[in-house]
Automatic annotation (TrEMBL):
Residues 692-769 form the tRNA synthetases class I (E and Q) anti-codon binding domain. It comes from the Eukaryota. InterPro entries: aa-tRNA-synth_I_CS, Gln-tRNA-synth, Gln-tRNA-synth_Ib_RNA-bd_2, Gln-tRNA-synth_Ib_RNA-bd_N, Gln-tRNA-synth_Ib_RNA-bd_N_1, Gln-tRNA-synth_Ib_RNA-bd_N_2, Gln/Glu-tRNA_Ligase, Glu/Gln-tRNA-synth. This is glutamine--tRNA ligase. Belongs to the class-I aminoacyl-tRNA synthetase family. It catalyses: tRNA(Gln) + L-glutamine + ATP = L-glutaminyl-tRNA(Gln) + AMP + diphosphate. Residues 578-682 form the Glutamyl/glutaminyl-tRNA synthetase class Ib anti-codon binding domain. PROSITE patterns: AA_TRNA_LIGASE_I (PS00178). Transmembrane segments: none annotated. Residues 185-197 have a biased composition (Basic and acidic residues).
């Protein structure tokens, strides 16, 4: 049996001893936080050898529902349960309501006891008398409905008059009273009441024949303002979290009034957040969510957000990544309060590490990486864990001076190697690396770990809300343990769900692999959901932020967002901002035989479909001549009733121009491939065909239209969740990029520059690519026109 399985078995046995049923005990051990809470409470209550079921159930309520803001009062509340001063669920509910309002503040015991019925004894006689009164009030209904009456309502009526009565006794008395009044149950009492059939009402005729829409539900406060869930800085005196130790002790982490007052004096009571990326790769759309949370909260509350580079690993960090991150943050529309680096605080971090050793909370260790891993798995202390403080101080100084070889020593935090949380297994605070630092230079040869530096720099920068994704939730214990051990101010920590999107990978390791191994064309390949790739594809930051706001800031983890939802927001934005134009991707030549050979006329085409016809700024000019080009798939040899484009002998409308009728088809030598179409146009537009197609004409007789390159992108991976596949690289979609080298465009597109976005009518939204040259423009398809997200019903 593994250590994990053994722990689970021990926990389940403990929960069964306090009277939980097997199902509840089994479900509890699958929830790490609830297991830790309940285990701590059982030991704190002194009932690890068992207790009666009623007490056990009340303790379970404490573990699962006790107000987080009032955790400082939990120990006192447990004593009320063990002493049977609080013995009913109704009392527990009332106590929780009281404590939720009080939070971590001191309170009057008399008021608390009065609020939850401590010392109030409700006799059986009182219950019987009250039940008789309730029955008298409802006698007619009871006699009519007999045993089919809602007994829950009767129970509720009694509870209103006697809130601290024992519910089991109340139920028993109600049952006895029912029998006294009605006698034995009859066969009719056991029958289900017949459902009343509602008469079908004839639908009301609506004169305008429009479907009546149901009123949309009122949006929640969180939907209106996703930042409403976060507390105010001055509320940061409440217990943040509990750290349970293997010796059954509990650390309840909260700021002292002195620490909070000092913090508020520096910040002026404003919100301070930070966006802390590691400069070891390009940012992806998951980072866009982090920016929305960190910068967005600060902006909404009128506060400040740092852009802090978490640069504790000099081997993986590059100036290229730092420059990219600053650029992308700016492109996404966020303005940092300050740009800082964890390395800016290397001296303070070192000084605090020395202080941590002095306080007996850290030691220099000589175990290898493999030995550390093995000892953690077995929950065994390092042989150097209890070395003298002076010895660790001397060795740590030797590490700093470069007198110890790389890999021969680390500084570890003295936490709890027997803890249920592996992130309390004496995490490494410092390691030796003889590598120059991109920002700090060659001053240091020891570097702090993320687990050591992150929380301390949060505190040094007076961060009010330290926000991160849920995979860091189990590190919260270590975060608060370290700040508490050093007596530092503690930010409010909150975790939200990681952003997962279908048909892509979001792991930096996987992204780095497919980039460095040339599966894609760099970090800004438009098929990637890196922010550089999305920008190159033509996606706007407005669309990305609208998408993030739409999915919300929640803690529901594991959900996979379909790519179509992101595409929906991209379309909504580009529909408003991308002017229309015409490009033919797969040209088929059409000769208009009744149009003069040397004639070219200019027609008005619309950039914006909803603009009025007299708004000249919404129009652009397109040439119309004897030779035009349409899409190959806009023509068929044979016509069918469901086909409304061009066919032999049939008519179609050229958008913004004239109807044309196909009169002749020129075939290649294989007698199948269509090479050219001959048609006649209707100058007076007498015919009104159903079908409309886009087109591009020769700008001058015998001169080809403007040639452009079009790149069509599809999902990079075939599977919705390629990251879970063992051979995930085999899932790459080999058709995810198709290049159309010789598309034809209207002349006005020649003026397009990098950053311009367009809707190519009937084809989708496109953006100018950086590979464009004066000789040939290159366009990336951002997204198609078809919106599967809306059709699926959002």
């Amino acid at each position: 049996m593994s250590v994990k399985d053994e722990n689970s078995a021990n926990s389940e046995d403990l929960f069964l001893k306090i009277g939980l049923d097997v199902k509840t005990a089994s479900q509890t051990i699958s929830n790490h936080k609830l297991t830790s809470n309940l285990t701590t409470i059982i030991h704190e209550a002194g009932v690890s050898n068992g207790c009666d079921r009623t007490t056990g159930n009340l303790l379970y309520s404490v573990a699962s529902r006790f107000p987080e803001a009032a955790l400082v009062h939990r120990s006192a509340f447990i004593k009320y349960i063990i002493s049977s001063k609080i013995k009913f669920p109704a009392q527990v509910d009332a106590a929780f309501d009281f404590l939720e309002n009080i939070g971590s503040e001191d309170f009057n015991l008399s008021e608390f006891e009065e609020a939850c019925g401590v010392g109030v004894e409700v006799s059986v006689e009182d219950i019987e008398k009250t039940v008789s009164e309730i029955f008298e009030e409802n006698k007619i209904t009871i006699l009519e409905k007999r045993y089919r009456i809602n007994e829950g309502k009767l129970l509720g009526d009694v509870r209103k008059k006697l809130p601290w009565a024992d519910t089991r006794i109340v139920k028993k008395v109600i049952g006895e009273k029912m029998y006294e009044l009605l006698g034995e149950k009859t066969a009719a009492d056991n029958e289900k009441p017949p459902k009343e059939k509602e008469k079908k009402k004839k639908p009301v005729k609506v004169e305008n024949k429009k479907t009546t829409m149901e009123a949309a539900p009122e949006p929640s406060e969180e939907e209106i303002n996703p930042y409403s869930i976060f507390p105010k800085p001055e509320q940061n005196i409440r217990v943040h979290t509990e750290v349970s130790f293997s010796d059954s002790s509990v650390l309840r982490c909260s700021n002292t009034k002195e620490l909070l007052d000092k913090h508020l004096k520096v910040t002026g009571g404003n919100v301070y957040t930070r966006f802390p990326p590691e400069p070891n790769g390009y940012l992806h759309i998951g980072h866009a969510k982090a920016m929305f949370v960190d910068f967005g909260l600060a902006k909404e509350r009128g506060g400040c957000c740092y852009l802090r580079f978490d640069d504790t690993n000099p081997e993986a960090e590059k100036r290229e990544y730092i420059t990219h991150i600053e650029d992308i943050v700016n492109w996404m529309g966020w303005e940092p309060f300050k740009i800082t680096y964890t390395s800016d605080y290397f001296q303070e971090l070192y000084d605090l590490a020395v202080e941590l050793i002095r306080r007996g909370h850290a030691y220099v260790d000589h175990q290898t990486g493999e030995e550390i891993k093995e000892y953690r798995e077995k929950k065994i202390n390092s042989p150097w864990r209890d070395r003298p403080i002076e010895e660790s101080l001397k060795l740590f100084d030797e590490m700093k001076r470069g007198n110890i070889e790389e890999g021969k020593a680390t500084l570890r935090m003295k936490q709890d190697m027997q803890n249920d949380n592996c992130n309390m297994y004496d995490l490494i605070a410092y390691r030796i690396k003889f590598t120059p630092h991109p920002h700090a230079g060659d001053k240091w040869c020891i570097y702090p770990s993320y687990d050591y530096a992150h929380c301390i720099v949060d505190s040094l920068e007076n961060i009010t809300h330290s926000l991160c994704t849920l995979e860091f939730e189990t590190r919260r214990a270590s975060y608060y343990w370290l700040l508490h051990s050093l007596g530092l101010y503690m930010p409010h920590v909150w975790e939200y769900s990681r952003l997962n999107i279908t048909n892509t990978v979001m792991s930096k390791r996987k992204l780095n692999h497919i980039v460095t191994n040339n599966h894609v064309d760099g970090w800004d390949d438009p098929r990637l959901l890196t922010l550089a790739g999305l920008r190159r594809r033509g996606v706007t930051p407005t669309a990305i932020n609208a998408f993030i706001r739409g999915i919300g800031i929640t803690r529901s983890d594991g959900s996979m967002i379909n790519m179509s939802r992101l595409e929906h927001h991209i379309r909504e934005e580009l529909n408003k901002t991308a002017p229309r134009t015409m490009v033919v991707l797969d040209p088929l030549k059409v000769v208009i035989t009744n149009f003069e050979t040397d004639k070219v006329i200019e027609l008005d085409a619309k950039k914006w479909p909803d603009a009025s016809s007299d708004d000249h700024s919404s129009l652009y000019k397109v040439p119309f001549s004897r030779v035009v080009y349409i899409e190959q798939d806009d023509f068929r040899m044979k016509y069918s009733s469901d086909y409304h484009r061009l066919a032999l002998g049939k008519t179609v409308m050229l958008r913004y121009a004239f109807p044309i009728k196909c009169t002749h088809v020129v075939l290649a030598d294989d007698n199948e491939t269509v090479v050219e179409i001959h048609a006649k146009y209707d100058l007076e537009k007498k015919i009104k065909p159903k079908g409309v197609v886009h087109w591009v004409a020769e700008p001058a007789p015998g001169k080809e239209p403007l040639k452009v390159e079009i790149r069509l992108f599809d999902k990079l991976f075939n599977s919705e969740n390629p990251a879970e596949l063992e051979n995930w690289l085999d899932d790459i979609n080999t058709n995810s990029r198709v290049v159309v080298s010789n598309a034809f465009a209207v002349p006005t597109l020649k003026e397009a520059v990098l950053g311009d976005r367009f809707q190519f009518e009937r084809k989708g939204y496109f953006a100018v690519d950086k590979d464009s040259t004066p000789e040939k423009l290159v366009f990336n398809r951002t997204v198609t026109l078809k919106d599967s997200y809306v059709k699926a019903g959002k």
